[in-house]
Design brief:
Blueprint: E1 2-8, H1 13-24, E2 29-34, E3 38-43, H2 47-56, E4 60-62
Antiparallel strand pairs: 1-3, 1-4, 2-3
């Protein structure tokens, strides 16, 4: 199942890399594609878990 989010707060490639790494560490995530303004996660993961990671890193999102 693919989940798509609109992101805000990412400023540079370091932010993209931090978010990508954090999401790939979650159980159930198969692939992650992150850009400064959006992200797509494939796998068996609940949207709330993705949102928790995004917010923990200081970014915001909407689905």
């Amino acid at each position: 199942m693919a989940l798509t989010f609109t992101l805000s707060g990412l400023k540079d490639a370091d932010d993209v890399n931090r978010l990508t790494t954090a999401l790939m560490e979650l159980d159930g995530v198969d692939t992650v594609q992150v850009a400064r303004e959006w992200l797509e996660v494939e796998g068996r993961i609940q949207p709330g878990r993705v949102t928790e990671v995004i917010e923990r890193l200081g970014f915001s999102s909407r689905r």
